[in-house]
């Protein structure tokens, strides 16, 4: 599936630089002991900016939910319709969710609750690597 090629700004550069090294880093707030994604200037929970850092995690998780996209306005993705967009609960970052297209999983065969593992895919337009999650054999 073609991927959108993000062009990181200075604020999100640590996240995408880590992706290019096949590592997943998320913002972590030391003030309230929680992860957040996507990155923001301050913690969504306590509004602290001074205690936000980047922490590496393995990226394992489970499928919480999903949707199937049948009609996207994104021209890059139209040839891939229908496709799934899954919500992944990360094991090491409780309460922190990420989205994935679940490479290798048919659009309407997403096993909610299934274990997933992190993989990285390279986007065509810029060569930026992006995280995706793949269902682990059940």
Write a structural description.
This protein has 138 residues and is mainly beta. It has one domain (13-135). It is built from two helices and eight strands, in the order αββββαββββ. Strands 6-5-4-7-8 form a five-stranded antiparallel beta sheet. It starts with 12 loop residues before the first helix and ends with a strand.
Q: How would the global form be characterised?
A: globular
User: How many structurally independent domains?
Assistant: 1
Strand order of the largest sheet: 6-5-4-7-8
Kindly state the mean pLDDT as a whole number? 93
Strand content: 35-45%
Please give the share of residues in helix. under 10%
Order of helices and strands: HEEEEHEEEE
End-to-end CA span: 23 Å
Low-confidence stretches: none
Q: How big is the Rg? A: 15 Å
Question: Number of helical segments?
Answer: 2
What descriptive keywords fit this protein?
single chain; 138 residues; mainly beta; 9% helix; globular
Question: What is the topology?
Answer:
Elements: H1 13-20, E1 24-29, E2 34-36, E3 52-57, E4 61-69, H2 75-78, E5 83-90, E6 97-100, E7 115-122, E8 129-135
């Amino acid at each position: 599936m073609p991927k959108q090629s993000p062009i990181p700004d200075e604020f999100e550069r640590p996240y995408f630089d880590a992706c290019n090294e096949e590592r997943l880093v998320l913002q972590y707030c030391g003030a309230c002991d929680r992860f957040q994604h996507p990155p923001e200037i301050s913690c969504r929970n306590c509004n602290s900016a001074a205690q936000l850092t980047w922490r590496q995690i393995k990226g394992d998780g489970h499928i919480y939910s999903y949707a199937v996209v049948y009609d996207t306005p994104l021209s890059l993705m139209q040839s891939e319709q229908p496709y799934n967009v899954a919500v992944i609960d990360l094991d090491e970052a409780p309460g922190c969710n990420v989205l994935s297209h679940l490479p290798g999983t048919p659009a309407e065969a997403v096993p909610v609750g299934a274990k997933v593992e992190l993989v990285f895919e390279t986007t065509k337009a810029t060569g930026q690597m992006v995280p995706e999650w793949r269902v682990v054999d059940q």
